[in-house]
Amino acid sequence: MNGLRIAWTIAMHDVSRELRRPVAVSAVLLFGVSSLVVLRLALAGGGKPGDAVLAGALWVVLVFAALLGTARAWATEREDGAFDALLSAPASRSAVHLGKVLSALILTLALHAVLVTMYLGLFGAPPSLGGVATLAAAVALADVGFAVVGVLVAGLGLRARGRDLLGPAMFLPLVIPLVIAAVTCSLAAWDTADASVPQLLLFLALYDLTFLVAGLAAFPELAVE
Amino acid sequence: MQPVFAPRTSRARISPRLAAILALVLVPACVLLTFLWAPTATIGLTGSGETQWDFAQKIFYIHVPIAFAAYLCFAAGAWNGLLYLLKERDDYDIRSYSGVHSGMVFGTLVLMTGSIWAKAAWGVWWQWGDRQLLVFLTLYLFYGAYFILRFSLEPGRARNRASAIYAILGVALVPLSFLAIRIADTLIHPIVLTSDGDRLTGPMWGTFAVGVAGFAALAIWMLQLETTAKLRAMRGYGADEEAPAVEASHA
User: Fold this and answer.
1) Predicted-complex ipTM score
2) Mutation test of the interface with chain B: which of A94, A180, A206, A207, choosing the one with the most B Cβ atoms within 10 A?
3) Angle between helices A93-123 and A3-20 (to 10 degrees)
4) Phi, psi of A157 (to 5 degrees)
């Protein structure tokens, strides 16, 4: 069985487990929806907030939802004591890591699709179809980044005490460049930033690739028994 | 008795004594040159035709060399982290930790001097449009979490590996942060060095070079002191006990 097939098997296993018993996904979804409702109410008074505030608010919700979701990348294996068994399976550790990234990506994309749709309903959509496409591309590419960084960070803190607090401390500084580019892309989608969208999307892809390669190289070193 | 340092593999050597002498001479020299030799830059002319002097710009000779020293320390942390992953020797883990730790000390000074410069130049303690400050702040926050990670793990191979990997990730974060801020550019920064040629005169360059060399030597000295102390503690030497000759390398 080659690495990609192993990775896909692991990803599908995680996704189907989450679909059967959607504890994490429903909790993160509820968090995201509640955050958007709170934001809508908090920004309701005193005139229309600017596009920069609205774009920033969207990305704050998306970042924290991704943080909560990806932090549980290894949770089941840890809770069941299955992590060492997974490492001793006849599969490369990079393939195991890639499988976790894929499952985190699928779940993050699904969650963010719901949250962004709800956001557009609450706060208004970009004025053009091109703007909607720009926003969708930015969210999709950012989600890849959230998944690769989130799984990497979850792996780093796998054996740590207080890992719930450790995750955000490592995750947030790492995604700052991603958020800067994604927010600027969103502003361009609403025609309020004079930025080069192709350049920004290319940057997001470069970021994703960098941390994907870093994660694939790092995880075998990290997963010492 | 075990030697304090494991056999070295790197040819790059800077004697601790040389680093100490350079730091003790060049850092005070940089301060003196800043006030006595480097000319005060001008901003322009006032409405009445008088020259406006930019005295606050003199912090450039301290602020930028400290930032270089911080980057040097973080680079040493990442490089020794890589060496740890390749060779699995505990002294590289200690060197990597010392690099990140010293980098945070210099990083704190960078943020403080940067804030002072921002207050003098723009009237605010923090300028979110300053590209270099933002990159540095990102790196500072990132390496701040290094200590939380390291001290959340039980000492041993797993901790050393996780710390090494985390230290190395900073190498990717610097260019990506810079690129993100540059592409999303609605930002401003007081430009001292430009692609059209620098605005620094000879004495300015001289003072700056002395500062860079001095703070780099100080960083290397600090790294060596901390590494030596930690290796002594790890290998059971007392503070007043004579250890075998020490000559550390970090770069």
Assistant:
1) 0.85
2) A180
3) 50
4) -95, 15
Question: Quick one: how far is CA B179 from the chain centroid?
Answer: 21
Closest CA to B77 of B153, B143, B133, B22: B143
Question: What are the φ/ψ torsions at residue B107 (nearest 5 degrees)?
Answer: -60, -40
A47 pLDDT above the threshold of 90: no
Task: Look up residue B46 and give its amino acid.
Answer: T
User: What does the buried/exposed string (b/e) look like for B52-89 if buried means 16 or more CB atoms within 10 Å of the residue's CB?
Assistant: eeeebbbbbbbbbbbbbbbbbbbbbbbbbbbbbbeeeb
**Cβ <8 Å between B148 and A169:** yes
Instruction: Please list, residue by residue across B25-49, b when 16 or more beta carbons sit within 10 angstroms of its beta carbon and e when fewer do.
Output: ebbebbbebbeeebeebeeeeeeee
Q: Return the higher-pLDDT residue of B153 and A195.
A: B153
**Burial zone of B90 (CB within 10 Å; 0-12 exposed, 13-18 middle, 19+ buried):** middle
**Residue B87: what are its φ and ψ, rounded to 5°?**
-115, -15
B231 C-beta neighbours (distance < 10 Å), count: 23
Average pLDDT, chain A: 87
- On whether the CB atoms of residues B93 and B160 are closer than 8 A, the answer is yes
Beta-carbon contacts of residue B182 (< 8 Å; ≥ 6 apart): B131
B245 touches chain A (CB under 8 A): no
The answer as to whether B250 is a domain residue is no
Task: Report pLDDT digits (tens) over B133-189.
Answer: 888 888 999 999 999 999 998 888 889 999 999 999 988 888 888 888 888 765 444
Q: Which residues of A touch B144 (CB under 8 A)?
A: 169, 173
User: What b-and-e string marks burial along A117-153, b requiring 16 or more CB atoms within 10 Å of the CB?
Assistant: ebbeeebebbeeeebeebbebbbbbbbbbbbbbbbbb
Whether residue B5 is contained in a domain is answered as: no
CA B71 to chain centre: 4
Residue B51: strand pairing partners: B45
- A122 to chain B, any CB pair closer than 8 A? The answer is no
CB atoms within 10 A of CB A23: 12
**Within a domain: B228:** yes
Give B187 to chain A, closest Cα distance, Å.
Answer: 12
A2 to chain B nearest CA, in Å?
26
Phi, psi of A74 (to 5 degrees): -110, 10
Residues of B in contact with A193 (CB under 8 A): 184, 186
Domain count for chain B: 1
A176 has a chain B CB within 8 A of its CB = yes
B247 in any annotated domain: no
With a cut of 50, say whether residue A165 has pLDDT above it. yes
Range of the domain at B179: 16-35+57-191+205-234
